[in-house]
Amino acid sequence: MSYHHQQHGTSSGSRTATRNFEFGRTHVVRPKGKHQATIVWLHGLGDNGSSASQLLESLSLPNIKWICPTAPTRPVALLGGFRCSAWFDVGEISEEGTDDWEGLDASAAHVANLLSTEPADVKLGIGGFSMGAATAIYSATCFALGKYANGNPYTVNLRAVVGLSGWLPGARVLRNKIERSNEAIRRAASLPILLCHGNSDDVVPYNYGEKSSRYLVLAGFRTVAFKSYEGLGHFTVPREMNEVCSWISARLGLDGSRS
Fold this sequence. Notes:
The chain is an alpha/beta fold and about 260 residues long. The protein has a single domain (about 25-250), classed as Rossmann fold, CATH 3.40.50.1820. Helix content is about 35%, strand content about 20%. It has helices spanning about 50-55, 100-115, 130-145, 170-180, 180-190, 205-220, 240-250; strands at about 25-30, 35-40, 65-70, 75, 80-85, 125-130, 160-165, 195-200, 225-230. The strands form 2 sheets. Strands 1-3-2-6-7-8-9 form a 7-stranded mixed sheet, sandwiched between helices. The protein has a two-stranded antiparallel ribbon with strand order 4-5. Helix 6 (about 205-220) links the parallel strand 8 (about 195-200) and strand 9 (about 225-230). Helix 3 (about 130-145) crosses helix 5 (about 180-190) and helix 4 runs parallel beside helix 6. It comes from Punica granatum. This is Acyl-protein thioesterase 1-like isoform X3. GO terms for molecular function: hydrolase activity. InterPro entries: AB_hydrolase_fold, PLipase/COase/thioEstase.
């Protein structure tokens, strides 16, 4: 997925943020077969929901409805204040970086709002690439804790999370937060997560993706799969997407899955 500037359009109904985050256009890929699952897919920095939907439309997952929102356009510290589509502000991608909890909460709430109107018998998931992956993984931690960083309740029942070339925001403090609650421990253990990362990634370092996986396991997420791709940079390849398809089908028990 390329990095480029995209104008935003519609606004978010998020109630969790004090800043006004204007989210862009949402693109939907309808299921070609029986609707068994809905997954919100989050693009990378500077990208948009349209390009994400084009990638997902080509996948052999006929029972999934894909919802592809576009992030708000905002100044990004990592880019010297350049305005582009971003799920949250980020200054540096490292364990020492300061997390934009307000931005993360607003984006996670926007995703939850998109999932909240899906039929009760449909399984729900979140996935993403790069910064979108970080937002998806952050949503997994909100699900486990039952709340956002600002304390507002997180009410969506997630069944699967996928993160490609991403990282875990708030990695070092997660275990302590989850261990305070038996319910959080139970919910973390129930949620399968797939993380994929290329070992030649020069944007989000491979070892940071690997560490994020270990932090999730230490925090109590018992079903975390970490897949490494030799020679892969900061992009996706068909082999990776095929493995994503197989994992999603098996984890969500979709028709035709070979689990």
